[in-house]
Backbone:
C-alpha cells in the first residue's frame, strides 16, 4: 500500500449524515424544530450512526440554526449514535457542551476570501480561535472533527492549490481533530482534481483520518466519492435527498445524496449498516415536508418502481 494510513481492503464505511445541518442551514423558509427532530429520528431508524444535528453559530448569520438549544435537548438518544454540531469558536463550543454535545466540528477554509465571508476572519485567525476549543475539548472529553472548505475551488478565488488544502488539513489534524473532512463547498471537483488534492493532503494526514464532503453543484459528487473510496477514504459526509447549500457560497447546491452514496457503496461490496429502503422513505418524507421533489434520482426511481408494483398488485 503506497498511501500512508489507507486500508483499501477495509469494506466498512462511515457515513456522516449532514442533512439536518448542512442540508437545512440554507433553507429560505423557517423549518420547524419538530420537523428537524423527526428527520433526525428517521435517519437514525434508517441506520445512520453519525448525524450532524445543528450548529452553534451566530443566529444573526445563520437564522435557520437558531433552535440549536431545543434540538440538542430533544435529540433521540440511542446507544451507538453520535451527534456532532458545528462550533466556530469557544463561545459556540461552550454553548454546545452546556447543551450536551459530546462531539463538535470546527471549520476552516483553504481560501482566505471564503474564510472571511464565512466566519469573518483569516485562515490563521480561525486556527488561533480553534486552539482554545481543542484545549477545552480535551479537558471535557469532547471529540473534535475539523472541516476544510474550498478544497478544490473557491467561489471568490477560483481554483485552490492542493498544497494549501494540505497545509490547513495538517494544522487541524495536529491540533487534535480525529478526522479532517475535506469540503468541495461549491462542487467543482472532478475525480482527477479530487485525487490530486487527496494526494497532497495524504502526505500530511493519514488517509484513515480523512473524510470526503462533496457538494453536487456540477453533478460530480458521486463520482468524487467513488474516486475517493478507491483512493482509500472510508468516511463520507452526505445529506439525505441531497439537501443543502452553503449560505456563503452563492449558487452552490446540496451535498451528495446519502441514498446515492449508500447505493454506490453497497454496489462496491462496502458495508454501511444503512437500510436503503428506509433511507428512501426518509428522503421522500423530508422532500414532502419541504414541499419539493426528492433531489436524488435514485429516490425518484425507487418511488416510481414502488408505485408501479402497487398499481400492478391491485
Ligand atoms: P463575528 O461577528 O466575527 O463574531 O462572527 P464576534 O466574535 O465579533 O461576535 C459578534 C456577535 O456574534 C456577538 O454578539 C457575539 O456574542 C456573537 P452581539 O454582541 O453582536 O450580540 N457570537 C456568537 N453567537 C452565537 N454563537 C457563536 C457566536 N460567536 C460570536 N458561536 C461567527 C463570527 C463565526 C460567529 C460568524 O461569522 C458566524 O456565525 N458565521 C456563520 C458560519 C456558518 O455557519 N457557515 C455555514 C457553515 S460552514 C459550511 O457550510 C461549510 C461546510 O459544510 C464544509 C463545506 O461544504 O465546505 C462545513
Ligand atoms: Mg458543506
Residues:
Amino acid at each position: 500500500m503506497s498511501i500512508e494510513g489507507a486500508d483499501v481492503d477495509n469494506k466498512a464505511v462511515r457515513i456522516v449524515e449532514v442533512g439536518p445541518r448542512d442540508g437545512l442551514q440554507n433553507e429560505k423558509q423557517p423549518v420547524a424544530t419538530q420537523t428537524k427532530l423527526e428527520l433526525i429520528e428517521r435517519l437514525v431508524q434508517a441506520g445512520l450512526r453519525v448525524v450532524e444535528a445543528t450548529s452553534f453559530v451566530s443566529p444573526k448569520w445563520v437564522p435557520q440554526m437558531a433552535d440549536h438549544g431545543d434540538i440538542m435537548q430533544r435529540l433521540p438518544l440511542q446507544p451507538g449514535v453520535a451527534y456532532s454540531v458545528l462550533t466556530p469558536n469557544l463561545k459556540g463550543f461552550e454553548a454546545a457542551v452546556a447543551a450536551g454535545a459530546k462531539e463538535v466540528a470546527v471549520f476552516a477554509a483553504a481560501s482566505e476570501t471564503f474564510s472571511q465571508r464565512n466566519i469573518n476572519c483569516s485562515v490563521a485567525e480561525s486556527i488561533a480561535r480553534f486552539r482554545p476549543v481543542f484545549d477545552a475539548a480535551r479537558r471535557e472529553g469532547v471529540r473534535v472533527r475539523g472541516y476544510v472548505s474550498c478544497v478544490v475551488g473557491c467561489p471568490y478565488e477560483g481554483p485552490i492549490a492542493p498544497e494549501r488544502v494540505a497545509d490547513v488539513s495538517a494544522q487541524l489534524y495536529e491540533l487534535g481533530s480525529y478526522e479532517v473532512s475535506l469540503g468541495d463547498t461549491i462542487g467543482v471537483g472532478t475525480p482527477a482534481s479530487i485525487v490530486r488534492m487527496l494526494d497532497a493532503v495524504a502526505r500530511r494526514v493519514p488517509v484513515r483520518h480523512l473524510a470526503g464532503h462533496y457538494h453536487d453543484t456540477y453533478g460530480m459528487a458521486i463520482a468524487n466519492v467513488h474516486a475517493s473510496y478507491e483512493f482509500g477514504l472510508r468516511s463520507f459526509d452526505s445529506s439525505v435527498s441531497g439537501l443543502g447549500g452553503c449560505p456563503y457560497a452563492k449558487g452552490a447546491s446540496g451535498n451528495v445524496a446519502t441514498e446515492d452514496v449508500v447505493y454506490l457503496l453497497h454496489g462496491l461490496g462496502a458495508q454501511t449498516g444503512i437500510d436503503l429502503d428506509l433511507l428512501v422513505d426518509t428522503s421522500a418524507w423530508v422532500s414532502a415536508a419541504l414541499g419539493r421533489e426528492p433531489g436524488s434520482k435514485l429516490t425518484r426511481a425507487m418511488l416510481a418502481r414502488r408505485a408501479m408494483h402497487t398499481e400492478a398488485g391491485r
User: Anything to note?
Assistant: The mean pLDDT is 96. Strands lie at 14-17, 50-55, 82-86, 103-109, 143-149, 153-154, 158-159, 179-184, 210-214, 235-238. The pocket of 3-hydroxy-3-methylglutaryl-coenzyme A (ligand 1) is lined by residues 22, 25, 55-58, 61-62, 86, 88-89, 91-92, 107, 118-120, 147, 149, 183, 185, 213, 215, 246-248 (CB under 6 Å). The chain is about 45% helix and 15% strand.
